[in-house]
Structure formats: structure tokens, C-alpha cells
Fold:
Amino acid sequence: GLYTGSYTPQASDTAATFPGSATEFTGYAEANRVLWNTAIPSTPTTTNAAARAEFNITVDAIINGAFMSTAPGKNAVTGDLYCAKNTTAPKSVTVGDILLLQYETIVTNV
Structure:
């Protein structure tokens, strides 16, 4: 998902609180939150670089970050919040834009 709020993700965030706290952005044509599709990783790094998440924008906005949740519905407050991250700079989008989002995770042993 995407968010427009001036919000810094917190370790205490949950799927139940995050959409409201961060102001989830739902102004895109896809019926649900866009899936994060990845290739099978051969290293600790997992990315969707080969198939970036595509958001077809239907409302002008400024995007301040992205998140991943196990719940597919827009503004859903169930499931688990996997991660959230502010953008390096706010991203202005307008109706008709296609926002391609690349997300990468690195798994390490603790």
C-alpha cells in the first residue's frame, strides 16, 4: 500500500493502526492493495525489481511512503503489517500517472 500522511513508521505499528495513522492512499484504480511479486531469491535479498508493483493513479496526491500488509483490501485493518518505509522525498502523483514501486528486503540471521 501507499500512504500520504506525514508519518514516520514506528516499531509499535500494527495492521490495525497503521492505515489510519499514516493516512493510507487509496486513489488508484486497482481494486485492492497491489501485490508484491518477487522471484525466488538466491541470496538474502528479495526484490520485486523484475515485476514492480503498479499503481494506476486516479486522484492527485503526494505519496510519503509505502507499506506491506497481509490484508489485501484498501484501508483493511486486519492481518499483519510486514513493513513500512517513508520515501526518500515526497512523490507527487496526478490522475493518469502510473506509479511503479520497487521494494527490497534483506533477511539476516539473528
